[in-house]
């Protein structure tokens, strides 16, 4: 049912999440600048501010016209020609600043299910910091073309960003790349200084086998425009299917995946079924059933696949990240 709900939502064709493990790393600023860059390039862009407890998008993208509710449709605010949905637009003292997680999840669900994005082509989702209920709800309800991690070089930021990356993979969402913010500053003579350490973004990219999309210096906003042009190219590359893969049924007992980088992996249905992580299978002793056949492979968005087996459990969803790791 969750899958059907996702597919029935009227959402922009390209959805990109921007995620960090902790606050204060400049994630929302990256979202705002990337949004403006895409808008300048002629794309119709929207921003969903998922941070209910500390929303900053209204400050970064102040509204020209406020959001409005018409019947069951919620029309986003408009800022510089950009559609923006944020809890910051709630009337003062009536916003969700102090709500518990179940209510917060309902608000996020309402933003997703009732927002009318019109002809928006790209939706950027500004995740709240951390790895809590709201982050999980966003990943459950949206098919992301890619998730971009934002970190700083500091060790604590890297630790938290690692947790965020692991949660993303556990949810089956595709990690696209990492941005290192506040990487360095330039002195008057052009020398680089690294007050927060060096190479943190590279460490993260190597750990999760994702590209380092860039390192943003402290200050020098005009010079940063070249970086955001490059980042915009990466984001638009997600829409071109650069990270898609092809699934092929080899025979009744095997299927293969041709990955976006040209690698081909072959899987046995019985081995895959043994790795099912549904609640029922977690409580059972797992035995590989060599005779299991695959009757159907069902794509689950950009996340992974679900298999209908000839016998045994067919409830599991197998993220592409897990399938790729099985052939390392």
What key attributes describe this structure?
single chain, 328 residues, alpha/beta, Rossmann fold, NE0471 N-terminal domain-like, 2 domains, eight-stranded mixed sheet, three-stranded antiparallel sheet
Structure, explained:
This protein is of the alpha/beta class and 328 residues long. It has helices at residues 2-8, 27-40, 57-60, 101-114, 133-141, 155-170, 200-208, 225-239, 269-274, 279-282, 320-326; strands at residues 14-19, 45-49, 68-70, 73-75, 77-79, 82-85, 122-126, 146-151, 175-180, 185-186, 192-193, 212-215, 246-251, 254-258, 264-268, 294-300, 304-309, 317-319. 32% of the residues lie in helices and 25% in strands. It has an eight-stranded mixed sheet with strand order 5-6-2-7-1-8-9-12, with helices on both faces. Strands 13-14-15 form a three-stranded antiparallel sheet. Helix 2 (27-40) crosses helix 8. The chain is globular, with a radius of gyration of 21 Å. It starts with a helix and ends with a helix.
Class from helix and strand fractions:
alpha/beta
Radius of gyration, in Å, reads 21 Å
CATH homologous superfamily placement of the largest domain: P-loop containing nucleotide triphosphate hydrolases
Shape: globular
CATH hierarchy class name of the largest domain: Alpha Beta
Strand content: 15-25%
Concise synopsis of the structure shown:
32% of the residues lie in helices and 25% in strands. By secondary structure, the protein is an alpha/beta fold.
